[in-house]
Amino acid sequence: QELSDEEGPSAAEQQADTTGGAQREPETRVVEVDMGPEIPPVVMNLTVEYDLPARKPYHGGYRHKVTGIVYHHAGTNTEAPPKPKRVVEDMVAPKFHRETQTKVVREQAVQGVREFGTQMGREDLRVEARTDYVIVAREYKDSALWDRVRLRATIVIQCYARGMFSRSLARKCRYELAYNRSYYLEQQRSEAKEAEERRNREVERRMKPRSRADFELLYNELEAWRVAETRKIEVSEMSAEEKQQAR
Predict the structure, then answer these.
(1) Under a CB-based contact definition with an 8 Å cutoff, are residues 48 and 28 in contact?
(2) DSSP symbols for 68-115
(3) Distance between CA atoms of 184 and 190, rounded to whole angstroms?
(4) Which of 42, 47, 50 shows the shortest CA–CA distance to 28?
(5) What is the mean pLDDT of residues 58-65?
(6) Which of 39, 103, 170, 230 has the maximum number of C-beta atoms within 10 A of its C-beta?
């Protein structure tokens, strides 16, 4: 459903809210407090103090285009209570406040008398040392040493990275070489096969002519052979009678 921006409540709505609003709660309330099992409850009279404005501030809203119902933006927050007094019973924050809902409480045992320092053994005092361990100070590393360590690590990383790049390039080159070689051999085989098939077809056409084109081919080849032989006879050193017999 579509909603449109609303600039603010009209004067009629403001008057209706101020005159026909909700009924105010009584100034005094009777509250019965449960004190626990086997203890009678305590009845208390509480006085309610109103410190709220007559109307909540307007934060904008929307008006439904079809029904005309106005939807107002609203916001609220519980005010933080004053800091508790330095008493054990008052150290717990009120449950209705936001701090008690977001805090993470952890329990840890601490013995201040034991953990404030280190006990050394004496001749008349034996200290339990079964769970103790020795801590030895390591070599101090200044900025120059750290720079050298980083430089060595960078060189090692570069060596491995460049080796990986080189191996990848060599693998790619080997693959391309093998592919080109296989492609070249396949092309040679296919060309040789086509040439053989073409030769067989030509031989078959001359041995067993079947079409008009086959007979014309044989005739043209025969005529070319006759012309070539005649030319050989003409340029030879034979006599005229021998040339006539050869023709």
Answers:
(1) yes
(2) --EEE-----PPPPPPPPSSSTT-SPPTTSTHHHH---------HHHH
(3) 10
(4) 47
(5) 85
(6) 230
**pLDDT exceeds 60 at position 160:** yes
**Contact indicator for 9, 58 with CB cutoff of 8 Å:** yes
Mean of per-residue pLDDT scores for the chain: 78
Which of these, 80, 73, 70, 50, lies nearest to 9 by C-alpha position? 70
The tokens of 144 are what? 């120059």
Per DSSP, the three-state class of 206 is: helix
List CB contacts of 119: < 8 A, sequence separation 6 or more: 127
Query: Can you tell me the distance from the alpha carbon of 171 to that of 173, in angstroms, rounded to the nearest whole number?
Result: 5
Decide: 50 and 12 in contact? Cβ < 8 Å: no
pLDDT tens profile 207-245: 888 888 888 888 888 888 888 888 888 777 777 777 777
Residue 28 near residue 46 (C-beta atoms within 8 A): yes
Residue ranges of E strands in the chain: 3-6, 28-33, 42-47, 61-64, 70-72
Q: How many CB atoms lie within 10 A of CB 6?
A: 17
Beta-carbon contacts of 61 under 8 Å, excluding residues fewer than 6 positions away, are 6, 70, 71, 72, 73
Length of the chain: 247
Token pair for 34: 């449960």
